[in-house]
Specification:
By secondary structure, the protein is mainly alpha-helical. The protein has 12 helices and no strands. It folds into 2 domains: 49 residues, no CATH class; 147 residues, no CATH class.
């Protein structure tokens, strides 16, 4: 919405000042279709020549997101950390093997279904379940899992940067860092309430819920 308002203000100022100075807007409107074809056609052609097909497809998918604004809001992070809390609390009370079914089939899991926004995000669910699966198997220690997480987040960052000069790159990477920090805190022996506090601390201040907000949200989901 802000993007649209910005364009309206910009165009209004540019053409408004032109008219106030005695400019003939009719001349501009008459030439406008041809000018737009020349400018945007040339720009699109150059963009297509300089980028791989996968980047072009990703760019097209991200254009609506650029107009609507970021989906990474405080409400989304509250839901994410509440989900992490629930699954870590279950593992702490019943043992790691108790979350095996949730990890192997998250779409049928009552915990994941409880959080519709985050639970329907394929990338988030895949990232989370991959590392929960490693925790259940017990084959890797916290440092080894952290190294794998860092590598995957770096790859995700690079892929997200390619389509449109970092549209949503920082936000999506921050979400994965929140998951990473929370799971690692749990592996180091912290209880779920403390583990999600570790995750809360890595969020940007503009989207980070307060301690009280997070605590109230988690209690409200029980």
């Amino acid at each position: 919405m802000i993007v649209i308002v910005g364009y309206v203000v910009s165009m209004g100022c540019i053409f408004g000042v032109y008219i106030f100075h005695g400019g003939n807007i009719g001349v501009i409107l008459k030439a406008l279709p041809f000018e737009l074809i020349t400018i945007f056609g040339g720009a699109l052609g150059a963009f297509a020549v300089n980028n791989q097909p996968k980047v072009l497809k990703a760019t097209i998918k991200l254009i609506p997101q650029a107009i609507k604004g970021s989906k990474y809001t405080k409400a989304r992070y509250l839901e994410l950390m509440a989900l992490l809390y629930d699954i870590l609390q279950k593992a702490r009370k019943e043992g790691l093997m108790a979350i095996e079914k949730d990890v192997e089939d998250p779409h049928s899991s009552a915990i994941f279904q409880k959080y519709a926004t985050v639970g329907s995000d394929h990338h988030v669910v895949e990232f989370m379940t991959d590392y929960l699966r490693m925790m259940v198997s017990g084959n890797l220690n916290a440092h080894e899992i952290e190294s794998l997480m860092d590598s995957e987040i770096d790859t995700h960052h690079a892929e997200a940067h390619a389509p449109i000069a970092a549209i949503a790159t920082e936000d999506s990477a921050k979400e994965l860092q929140c998951i990473k920090t929370t799971l690692l805190a749990s592996m180091q022996g912290y209880n779920p309430s403390t583990a999600i506090e570790f995750g809360r601390k890595v969020l940007f201040s503009t989207e980070r819920p307060t301690f009280i907000e997070l605590e109230s949200y988690v209690r409200g989901k029980k």
